[in-house]
Amino acid sequence: MKKLLFFLSILFFVYQAQAQTWDWGGPVDPLQAKFKVLHYRLQLEFFPQTQSIQGSSTVTFEAQERLDTLRFQLIDNYTVSRVLMEGKEVGFVHQNDLLDIFPVDCTCNEVEIFYEGETPIAQDPPWSGGFTWEKDPSGRHWMGLSCQGEGAKIFMPALDHPNSEAQNGVDLYLTAPKPYAIASNGRLLEISEKENKNTYHWSSSYPINNYGINFTLGHFTQAKKEFQSSSGAKIPMEVWVLQDHETQAQALLEVLEESARTHEKYFGPFPFPQDKIAVVETPYLGMEHQTINAYGNNYQFEPMGKVQYDWLLNHELGHEWFGNKISVGDWADMWIHEGLTAYGDWLFYWEHGGPDAYFEKVKLEEAYIPHEKPVVSPRNSTEKTAYHPEIYTKGAMVIHSLRGVLGDELFFKALKAVAMEEEFAYTTKISTDAFVEFIQNYTGKDLKDFFQLYLYSTNLPEVHLKKKGKNQYQLSLEGIQFELPIEVKTSTGIQKYYLGKTPTLISSTSTPEVDPRGWLMLKR
Question: Which CATH class for the 1-459 domain?
């Protein structure tokens, strides 16, 4: 728990301290607003000795009009050698990390781009991302990719905006020298051998966000089993670990299974049953990558009740629901990815450690929230603007406070309903406004002032408690124009009051304790 707290508290400062060349998000490029991506077919060969890649990307797209310019993002590190449409070479310009392609006399919906080059090296993955080329304990090559802050343009031509997902998924043909393996998204359909190389064909037909596309190269071994989902589906469950850590594979698989079961209880069935539930050991801490989450926490399991817990694995797995299945189209709403997933981590404490462990976790996390920036950023934010530590901790605390306001029965039903709402899943995008509207409609509660206070401002209500004669206390909340349901502990026990600017008179032979379990963020 202390390690997770330390990780979250320094996250933003480490992230900002590192030089980061690329960003993404912001307003949609007008040229890119004219089409949407349906599918990526990526064929790449990896060269560990030179830390470079070579290959092609075939992009299937859909447009409502004939395009004069087809614009993708691709960083200038790579050299584009040619571009084909309907088997014919077409003109292009590649500069300033943009690739503009000029279709000629065709109504094509597919383009193939050939490129190669040395990969950008991550300075502090995953916060300052790129490729991480390391050696495993036996001195063999080990490569991981992280790009949440940079987007997919650091490894392939892409319509690189959070509102763009490949609607029909991805196919990845990834080639590495023997004996290296490559773990990636979806299901492994084939391993083909040629000379001294292996090509791994991974495929997923689910929509996928750009930074969720991923691959990791290494000298791996696997442990696997079949996971019985609450939906009734039998889903492959796999862990890919370095061969040097083969003895840890089975334990990691058991931790993964327990995390999956816990997430399913609160968020509903695993969202990608036709693919797999998997993690791969990476040379950096971790990141959510659809059906192949990065794991680099060095098997630091800790007991939680009767099970073992790994905060990193649990957190990244939670993103399969919030981040991968339910995604935002504007980084302004990034807290939905991180805050709801962080709250899923707190629920593991609730489920396996019990109420005491849960409330201790909440109080420890809340103590480190600086309340310096609103959880929701301005519209059309870039990733750099929206990414700060409060989208994790305060975002989770908002959900915890919502639980306190609604009560457990209604809250847990609403939480699962959000996670399973088809309107937000896969091909569509969620926003903060849509989230708030859904919660209000589902619960029948007017929560606009609550969400406005905690998501869009840095203000906190201030508790005012005054003694008014013998065994009488006057209690109010300053700084808000509405009332909040708050528990108050008096000499007769805990009772819930609706408190606001107008003072409420409370009887108690001892000094009342406001919000003793810490449901709300208050100035006390």
Answer: mainly beta
